[in-house]
């Protein structure tokens, strides 16, 4: 399955192919870069990952399910973060939407809008930063998923936004 | 000794008290409000009684309802924990009138020390250094202005009945006094039902060091070392340790002696804490006495080897202290982090909600005093303290290393919490060197945070994708039968017989 993961202001494409029973060797490609992962389901909601011999344990929780995917909370390797996950079917749907019309840019995490990088009406390229969001004292650029015109920016510097809140639309 | 004790509290402290009772072979009675029906303290207690609806005034703060539960259960004593009714002299007196032992000091000692102004007067009379200012509450703005002009700005306004930072205002210049005076009085009235405020010279960026005391009903009083509590946000402690780093033995001994003097003056019994401000030159000034078990008591337990809750129960039962001051031994170093459901990035705003996953750390030198579990919904109505993580080491370095390890192991998913903030503090050079004062958290927050460890986000993205895949096909995730329901397992086992 192909997933698009938005985490910490960046979007990554992760393709995973699991073993039949969920556990054991998985094929993983992170932004096209293949890697082998050994996965063990520790208990409901926790997984053990062995990546090139390094051992990591992650706990996850589903914070929200919505039309465009799900918001997961991940805690592991001494840190935690929330991640927006779009799955393959919804991704293809979104791709169709993107080809034909608007793409919504949502807040990958709760935080404060520090500055806008593009004005409404501006032409932007896929991957170009639209605004800077500060969370946990870290500044993250929120980027456009597609090329097009920035239709509207719905927030202003100083605004506090919640995870998943609509920030801007690109057509 | 008592056979049954009612615990008039909730959350982690109620759990800790249930455990203390169990260790003594005493039955523990829990009480709960409607939102706490499935609280961990209720699950662990021998008996449990409903107090009322969620608001504290109708449950944990209701003297009548707590006493009713005590009568219904036949409890001989009540342990109030901290917060709620713990420092309420009226409640202690009501227990006495009802023939139930209140595990704590007498209502008279509580009254003598409960108000900050009364305690300041007592300290002054017994030659314990206090910050220059008014001994009694300030009667008017004009009086406040006159006193402030005499002792010089900056000054601190504090609620006489206060605690927990409410009704506290720092005033750096005369023109701020009027609004600060009004705000402090309003806040004090709202929080404590008493608008009285007093004024004292402000020590900028002081350290906050406190002495644990213990006294029996036979006139024996001991002090059990100090706790450094300077790491605070919104005037509330979040990290405590003992011994205090960078405090000389001579100062420590003087503070211990001062703590015993004021305790003796108030005929103090049971556990209590004498709080001091310490300035850059190790001058110390009496602040207040907390007439109860402190949140951070495990720090002292780990360095002294004593169980303070058990000592409290023995004292309340009329037994003499089992050791003298000379027999008190302190060994190694202990540190505590208060794990709260709060967002460090949003001025530590509470963020209650449902804990979906929880994995607590363990191993050598680690103690987790928790009040929650996976599946528990942290209520909106109360303090969002989830757990206290405490580590012990032979020296400060080992205690900090164990805390770093425990913080890295701790996983709480589903609600916001401050674990990442503690991980940051434990890596901070100033903290590691013991350079803390009450301005520490603000200084740390003003610094840019070090970038996330290389590759963590890649790793987390891979984990998110695998987790999503497993979640999308839960049946396929059934490796060794781990995802089967207990009913399926039972059915299979039955079929094999």
Count of individual helical segments of chain B = 17
- End-to-end Cα distance of chain B, whole Å, is 50 Å
Q: Can you list the strand order of the major beta sheet of chain B?
A: 13-12-9-10-11-14-19-18
State the low-pLDDT regions of chain B, or none: 475-484
How would a crystallographer describe the biggest sheet of chain A? 8 strands, antiparallel, barrel
Total E-strand runs of chain B: 20
Radius of gyration of chain A: 17 Å
Helix content of chain A: under 10%
**Unreliable spans of chain A:** none
The rough form of chain A would be described as: elongated
Mean pLDDT of chain A: 82
| Helix fraction bin of chain B | 25-40%
Strand content of chain A: over 45%
Structural class of chain A: mainly beta
Structure classification of chain B: alpha+beta
User: What radius of gyration of chain B results from the CA coordinates?
Assistant: 24 Å
Largest interface: A-B, 60 and 49 residues
What's the total count of β strands of chain A?
16
Could you state the order of secondary-structure elements of chain A as H and E? EEEEEEEEHEEEEEEEE
Q: Which band does the percent of strand residues of chain B land in?
A: 15-25%
């Amino acid at each position: 399955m192909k997933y698009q993961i938005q985490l910490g202001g960046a979007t990554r494409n992760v393709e995973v192919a699991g073993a039949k029973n969920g556990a054991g060797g998985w094929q993983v490609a992170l932004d096209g870069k293949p890697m082998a992962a050994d996965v063990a389901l520790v208990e409901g909601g926790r997984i053990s990952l062995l990546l090139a011999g390094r051992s990591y344990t992650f706990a996850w929780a589903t914070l929200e399910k919505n039309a465009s995917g799900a918001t997961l909370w991940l805690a592991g390797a001494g840190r935690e973060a929330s991640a927006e996950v779009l799955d393959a079917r919804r991704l293809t749907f979104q791709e169709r939407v993107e080809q034909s019309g608007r793409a919504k840019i949502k807040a990958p995490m709760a935080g404060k809008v520090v500055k806008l990088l593009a004005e409404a009406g501006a032409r932007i390229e896929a991957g170009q930063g639209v605004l800077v969001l500060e969370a946990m004292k870290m500044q993250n650029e929120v980027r456009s998923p597609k090329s097009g015109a920035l239709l509207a920016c719905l927030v202003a510097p100083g605004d506090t936004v919640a995870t998943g809140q609509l920030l801007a639309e690109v057509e | 000794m008592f056979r049954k004790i009612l615990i008039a509290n909730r959350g982690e402290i109620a759990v800790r008290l249930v455990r203390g009772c169990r260790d003594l072979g005493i039955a523990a009675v829990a009480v709960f409000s409607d939102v706490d029906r499935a609280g961990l303290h209720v699950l662990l207690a021998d008996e449990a009684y409903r107090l009322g609806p969620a608001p504290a005034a109708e449950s944990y703060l209701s003297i009548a309802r707590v006493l009713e539960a005590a009568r219904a259960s036949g409890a001989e004593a009540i342990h109030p924990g901290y917060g709620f009714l713990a420092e309420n002299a009226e409640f202690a007196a009501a227990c006495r009138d009802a023939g139930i032992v209140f595990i704590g000091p007498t209502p008279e000692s509580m009254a003598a020390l409960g108000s900050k102004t009364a305690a300041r007067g007592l300290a002054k009379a017994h030659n314990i250094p206090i910050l220059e200012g008014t001994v009694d509450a300030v009667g008017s703005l004009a009086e406040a202005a006159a006193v402030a002009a005499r002792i010089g700005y900056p000054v601190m306004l504090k609620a006489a009945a206060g605690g927990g930072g409410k009704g506290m205002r720092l005033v750096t210049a005369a023109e701020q006094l009027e609004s600060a005076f009004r705000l402090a009085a309003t806040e004090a009235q709202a929080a404590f039902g008493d608008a009285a405020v007093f004024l004292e010279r402000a020590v900028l960026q002081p350290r906050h060091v406190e002495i644990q005391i213990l006294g029996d009903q036979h006139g024996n009083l001991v002090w059990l070392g100090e706790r450094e509590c300077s790491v605070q946000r919104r005037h509330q402690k979040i990290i405590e340790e003992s011994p205090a780093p960078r405090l000389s033995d001579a100062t420590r001994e003087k503070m211990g002696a001062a703590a015993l003097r004021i305790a003796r003056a108030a005929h103090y019994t049971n556990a209590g804490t004498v709080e001091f401000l310490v300035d850059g030159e190790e001058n110390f000034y009496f602040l207040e006495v907390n007439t109860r078990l402190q949140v951070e008591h495990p720090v002292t337990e780990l360095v002294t080897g004593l169980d303070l809750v058990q000592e409290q129960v023995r004292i309340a039962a009329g037994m003499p202290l089992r050791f003298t001051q000379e027999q008190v031994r302190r060994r190694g170093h202990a540190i505590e982090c208060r794990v709260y459901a709060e967002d460090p990035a949003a001025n530590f705003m509470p963020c209650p909600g449902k804990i979906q996953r929880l994995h607590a750390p363990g191993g050598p030198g680690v103690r987790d005093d928790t009040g929650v579990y996976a599946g528990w919904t942290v209520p909106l109505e109360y303090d969002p303290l989830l757990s206290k993580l405490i580590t012990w080491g032979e020296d400060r370095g080992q205690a900090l290393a164990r805390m770093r390890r425990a913080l890295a192991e701790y996983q709480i998913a589903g609600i916001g919490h401050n674990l990442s903030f503690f991980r940051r503090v434990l890596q901070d050079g100033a903290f590691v060197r013991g350079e803390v004062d009450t301005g520490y958290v603000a200084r740390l927050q003003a610094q840019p945070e070090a970038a996330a460890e290389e590759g963590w986000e890649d790793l987390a993205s891979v984990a998110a994708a695998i987790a999503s895949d497993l979640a999308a096909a839960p049946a396929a995730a059934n490796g060794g039968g781990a995802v089967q329901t207990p009913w399926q397992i039972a059915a299979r086992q039955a079929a094999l017989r």
